[in-house]
Structure to design on (914 residues):
């Protein structure tokens, strides 16, 4: 089909949807460093992990051998309700920019969770149900993950307890209400429902919360209640595994039309979207079959890849989770409250951290006012009002397309449009009113948190 | 493809998308009654109408001859950004209900306006641009139409002035912010910006506004400003014409798999979605080629078809618009403020009114608590959180499917899922908190407004 006119939206047939997830660790010669038990300093065993996580998910977390892991039929059926996600050719954006570049985006926002998060939520809920659990606990920041998990738990009739970062809980009452529609219980974090929550409240009264803190509360709640486990929407290898469905669909759609991307761009908070989007392309790169420029885009206010250090750190503020080797700003780091939207996590997926450390991908950071400029521009041209997170990728995709305009190069750019911004209108309002501020931590600030990193590894 | 397994979502190819709209009036033996000039009592001429509406849209409004009207390429290109809309087989809903019925829904919510309204907005903006106008004015109730028009105007670089029913303006600040993202100006109605607004405010201080009142303000603003015209998101024949794209896509998708629906269900406020969805099916019915049960679902709080009278009435509260023969509750009728969402219009499309009067379709009304029960049930099973308006159709589709369960009939039900409820979480919250009330006007109340109907026709 190489010479066929490429449609505005490439939809795969149901029969072309992936039947297995792709596990990039199988193709990495140098594997990511293992999770460590903070008490012993030794790699976490499956048994230790299964106190916190579902058994099958623990197996996926530790799997470094199998490149493909079959997607159970029940999950594939659920995927069919909202997938395949369209790969969109941004004809209107290209025309408006006057660029010779060809721009594509994989749009993951056509479902009620509003983002790609549902891809992993349904998988994690499925394995929890299969294990006969009563329910799961989790944290949510911007709210996409909590919404996605609520939907997934409702589908499998599982109890769902969400700790929502307090500032989001207050700024986004409608997100909370969507979770409630799906039967989840939502608690602002830090809360007095957990020991770690009480401790954090005592040490930082008036705190607006953080992802790291909400994680600690969710983990504590899971391990202290029978029949519950903790689930996480990003960072972990299992999440990147499930999210590989994004990249696999993207690659199949591109291959169908004989398109080879030059640049692949994704926003990066904990790494769930970026890791999923790039998975099969990075796989080709690792196997020496093809080369691509891969760019992670993070907020200047929370720059773990571009300004963090590659070291073992806690995944959560309360230090109840295993240690992970990753690019990190320190588990106490919390971006300024004026930062809108997600991508507020202090660390980064260990898989992506290792790939970045090996020089297999680039990273860049952007300021949020530049991000919202790109978001509004994109909304007016391509119709979709994007999530602040996704708009980080839009910003850099536009910048790369404008470089092509200068050089005349006809590069093919693919970026991940992870979701919609319908629950982020408070942030858009600030932007329209001209009162949105940029926050960039100083080196001195970052140094404070860096000094507190655990001395391991 | 008749024996092929039907996918969860049927997406047409771009090449299968309609190239012409279908004008049902051409196939009606008895045509809808003409719009009348309230001053003379005579049919409105094209010249008279063109003071208010764009020339090309006036021609479409009056066209009773041409069954097909070509969709200009620019509009088809815009359609390709968010269409074709999927026709979804509700496998999960069928299974949960345990019904032998086969349920399909045409989902129009996969665009930032959140509804089908964009189909007509882009057409009306296109013709305004083509005529060299500076901008357009309109009203919006629940906000979908205003958002859709803002998006369309932004695409064609037209000025867009929206009068938003005051209670919606206050309840839905985020809808307003989306319109602002697309560069529209939004004024709560009634306002002091127009003579008619000032008059209504004087007569009804503290009013929460109505669609009829906002229409009057928008029309006044259009006719008193050079280079502006008024555009309307429902009721008019031109809108039903543009919305026929919904039904045409639905029919093509069904035909592709050899499916013949038994029942077609749509919610009805002014009639834009229902008229569009049923158009080609009703066309077959009018030409004696096929038969279908067609059901209009309206709110019990605003029951124009089921409890109104078929008579000439004003389209707006301020009586500045032409008179239309339609099922109406009287142009002063305003549903109780406790009614959530749209479908608050006092009248009904003259085309649908005439078809209903000829016995070619049925109508039923449902209470809003029943509607939200259906909405939540549907959200949990099919994943999509529906708009309150769309949920009227869901309610009746579920009821019809449950009847099939009792009788064992394998009927095929198609309903219109017009949009998503992401900006309606205040209403969902009321429902969850158990404080949502039902409002059904008494016969005495309706009689008050009925007596005020103009004595014409």
């Amino acid at each position: 089909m190489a010479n066929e006119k490429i449609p505005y939206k490439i939809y795969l047939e149901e029969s072309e949807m992936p039947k297995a997830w792709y596990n990039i660790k199988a193709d990495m010669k140098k594997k990511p460093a293992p999770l460590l038990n903070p008490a012993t300093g030794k790699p976490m065993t499956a048994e230790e992990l299964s106190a916190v996580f579902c058994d099958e998910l623990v197996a996926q977390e530790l799997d470094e051998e199998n490149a493909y892991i079959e997607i159970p039929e029940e999950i594939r059926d659920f995927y069919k309700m909202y997938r395949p996600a369209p790969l969109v050719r941004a004809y209107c954006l290209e025309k408006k920019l006057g660029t010779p570049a060809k721009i594509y985006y994989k749009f993951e926002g056509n479902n009620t969770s509003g983002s790609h998060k549902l891809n992993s939520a349904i998988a994690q809920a499925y394995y929890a149900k299969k294990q006969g659990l009563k329910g799961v606990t989790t944290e949510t920041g911007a709210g996409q993950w909590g919404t996605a998990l609520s939907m997934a738990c409702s589908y499998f009739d599982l109890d769902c307890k969400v700790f929502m970062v307090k500032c989001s809980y207050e700024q986004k009452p409608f997100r909370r209400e969507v979770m409630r529609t799906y039967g989840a219980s939502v608690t602002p974090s830090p809360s007095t429902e957990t020991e770690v929550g009480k401790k954090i409240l005592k040490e930082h009264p008036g705190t607006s919360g953080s992802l790291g803190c909400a994680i600690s509360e969710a983990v504590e709640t899971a391990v202290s209640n029978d029949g519950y486990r903790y689930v996480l929407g990003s960072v972990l290898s299992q999440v990147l595994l499930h999210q590989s469905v994004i990249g696999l669909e993207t690659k199949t759609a591109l291959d169908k039309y004989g398109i080879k991307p030059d640049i692949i761009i994704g926003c990066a908070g904990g790494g769930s979207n970026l890791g999923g989007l790039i998975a099969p392309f990075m796989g080709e790169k690792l196997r020496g079959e093809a080369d691509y420029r891969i760019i992670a885009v993070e907020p200047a206010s929370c720059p773990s890849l571009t300004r963090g250090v590659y070291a073992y750190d806690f995944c959560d503020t309360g230090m109840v989770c295993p240690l992970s080797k990753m690019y990190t700003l320190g588990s106490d780091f919390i971006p300024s409250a004026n930062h809108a939207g997600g991508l507020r996590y202090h660390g980064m997926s260990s898989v992506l951290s290792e790939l970045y450390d090996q020089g297999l991908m680039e990273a860049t950071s952007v300021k949020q006012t530049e991000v919202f400029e790109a978001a509004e521009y994109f909304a007016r041209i391509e119709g979709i009002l994007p999530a602040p997170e996704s708009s980080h990728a839009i910003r850099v995709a536009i910048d790369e397309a404008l470089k092509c305009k200068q050089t005349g190069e006809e590069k093919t750019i693919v970026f991940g449009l992870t979701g919609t911004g319908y629950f982020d209108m408070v942030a858009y309002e600030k932007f329209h009113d001209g009162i949105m501020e940029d926050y960039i931590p100083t080196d001195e600030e970052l140094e404070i948190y860096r000094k507190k990193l655990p001395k391991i590894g």
